[in-house]
Amino acid sequence: MNSTQPVSGLLTGRLSALMFMQFFVWGAWNVTLGLVMQTVGVGSLIANAFSVGPIASIVGSFLLGMAAARFLSPKMLMVVLHLVGGVLLFILPTLLTPEHGASFVWLLLGYMILYMPTVGLANTIALKSFGERVDRFPFVRAFGTLGWIVAGLIIGWAGLSASPQIFQVAGVVSLALGLYSITLPNVQPDAPQGKSLVAEVFCTEAFGLMRNRSFLIFILCATLISIPLAMYYAYASPYVGAAGIENVGGTLAIGQMSELVFMFSMPFLYRRFGVKPLLLVGMIAWALRYALFAIGDGGAGIWAIYLGVALHGVCYDFFFVAGAIYTGTIATPKGVNAQAQGMLTLFTYGVGMLLGSQIGGLLYAQLPANATVADWHHLWWYPAIAAAVIALLFQFTFKNNRNEVQA
After folding, report:
1. Architecture of the domain made up of 203-397
2. pLDDT by residue (tens digit) across 23-77?
3. Contacts 24+ apart (CB under 8 A), 270-274
4. 144 CB burial (10 A radius; 0-12, 13-18, 19+)
5. For domain 12-183, which architecture applies?
6. Which of 214, 218, 237, 300 qualifies as a FRET site for 162, CA 20 to 30 Å off?
């Protein structure tokens, strides 16, 4: 497809619906899970519950996200994974009790092994459908953010922020997405490169992209920045609740609203500035967000909490969306786009967030049983400092060829 060829409005609409449901499913339960677990008396398992996603990213990326995508149609993988996952989502609330907390974590792991590969698969379907017009991807991906926002608003308005029923809401949409995926564009798996079976399974072509020094630095920094990122996903909801804010789901949806605003500006910003400035601004925003959480409170300082949440648009879009486009531009000429997107998911949502969830769990364990906002402050300084250090590392080591990453 020529880079100047217009993109069908129908195709854009179909892919936008895909992204909307893809992230509605995740956003319906992920945002307030920490608060739900604290409410039902299994708060001590929050770190374990938020570690299963990263573990699933590692396992799923190899078994389904990258290896299986070499031999099966990405859209058929989406059909199977979301239908089976939807059934598991309906079972999860029955195990969210003090007596069955461990079983809940294990079943959540099984579900996430199915779900996490679909993040990379959805990106792959969209990017391959657009061909060289990758500048259209942020517009479509914005509907994923919209889906996350709508999920949070529904959960908040329905009074389900602290209820296990969040999984049932996600389950309904997961089943719908599984059926809808049958209609998605039939993009082809990455063409085999004539390598051995072992090379195919371990996706050596994708990992070979890291011979490109700039891409290697990007993967390293993406992994590191995902460590403090995990602490936001796991502990933002109980922190906001401790500040006395009742509509936790709706409040955290502010972050996705800002993400939506910046998402639409990404094509212009990416073409105008290239990848490095966007990635750097994203990392600096993470440091600033956590610093704001570290000084915010439920009284006169509540503005810092709202501003920290609102920074999510810069934090996520400027790093992860720009990073997905950058990965596509590096991988597409080699014919390993699906593998590379899966590899990015493995390192960020996998390795990085696994480390972050466990480190966050150690810090959370130091909080008193009925932690106040003041008790939370010291916890947030750790990710703030870590994000600032990673931003400095990236600034002084990442030196890309700007023409290499232009959309």
Report:
1. Up-down Bundle (1.20)
2. 999 999 988 898 899 889 898 898 889 888 888 877 776 665 455 556 678 888 8
3. 270/135, 270/138, 270/322, 270/325, 270/406, 270/407, 271/135, 271/406, 271/407, 274/400, 274/402, 274/405, 274/406
4. buried
5. Up-down Bundle (1.20)
6. 300
Residue 317: pLDDT band (50, 70, 90) is confident
Contact 81, 117 (CB under 8 A): yes
**pLDDT value at position 405?**
42
User: Residues 342, 65: contact at Cβ < 8 Å?
Assistant: yes
User: pLDDT, tens digit, for every residue of 183-233?
Assistant: 998 887 655 555 555 555 556 777 788 888 888 999 999 999 999 888 888
Phi, psi of 282, deg, nearest 5: -60, -45
pLDDT at 2: 42
- Reported as a pLDDT band with limits 50, 70 and 90, residue 381 is very high
Token pair listed for 290: 């956590």
DSSP string, 92-149: GGGG-STTTHHHHHHHHHHHHHHHHHHHHHHHHHHHHHHTT-GGGHHHHHHHHHHHHH
Predicted local distance difference test score (pLDDT) of residue 69: 54
Can you tell me the distance from the alpha carbon of 124 to that of 336, in angstroms, rounded to the nearest whole number?
A: 10
Amino acid, single-letter form, for residue 247: N
Residue type, 22: Q
**Domain ranges in the chain?**
12-183, 203-397
Pick 174 or 256 by higher pLDDT: 174
